[in-house]
Amino acid sequence: MIARTLAVSLALAAFAAFAKPTLEPIGEFAVPEANQGVGVDDKYFYAIDNQTIGKYEKKTGKLAKKWTGDKKGPILHLDSALLMDGKIYAAHSNYPARPMTSSIEIWDAASMRHTESHSLGIERGSLTWLDRDAHGVWWGAFANYNRLLDKSPLAHGNNHNTQVVRFDRDWRVAEAWVDPDALVEKFGDMSNSGGSWGPDGKLYVTGHDNPELYVMELPEIGSELKWVGTIPVEIGGQGFAFDHSQPGVIYGIIRKKDGGEVTVSRVTPPAIN
After folding, report:
1. Closest CA to 123 of 155, 165, 87
2. 129 burial class (0-12, 13-18, 19+ CB within 10 angstroms)?
3. Closest to 270 measured CA to CA, from 4, 58, 82, 13
């Protein structure tokens, strides 16, 4: 904990000294599960697909373990992964089914065994990401979409209804914010796919496709998030992860027809951790 606090402090100092961080690609791995998102700890990265989690060695890209759900469910659409205290926390929904339901699914990272499930039922949309900030508070986003889906003649909600939320200790929504219209336009007919807090106190989010991180702040008044910056990154939207064992390193994914790719990039100086 002390080491992580020191790393965060160094990253904060670097961010203050350099207002415009640059990005350096430092690695890429061909990973078939890299379709929805990626999580990372000190030794492994975890590629996320709808019903699959692949655990890979960070140094070699070699597959270490894999969890695969039944094609009929109950796991239907995993969307992101956060590694915390030896556990994988994943946002899950029934996308593209209606009505939209969501849950938080948890695995033991060492054994890759599913251990816990917290149902959120019918909420504000489809849960797409989950994160815990430096104060131990849990956050997430419920996405809505404008894209027409095969199973419905209607759009999957309206992406202006997408909300970033703060959870209480019982996974109930305590507060919620919407994205500014200009950012929603960047999402196209899709929505906010990934998100995580940086040590600078800002929230970093992604869309569904764009190779960018959007830097957000909570407003002093009202319910609309403040969009304060954009960082180009080697990703294709979707779920991403900050490598807390390497300040400034970001893991992301790029979807490809012949299999996904996990990308590794360093922000220089390390503005995020």
Report:
1. 165
2. buried
3. 13
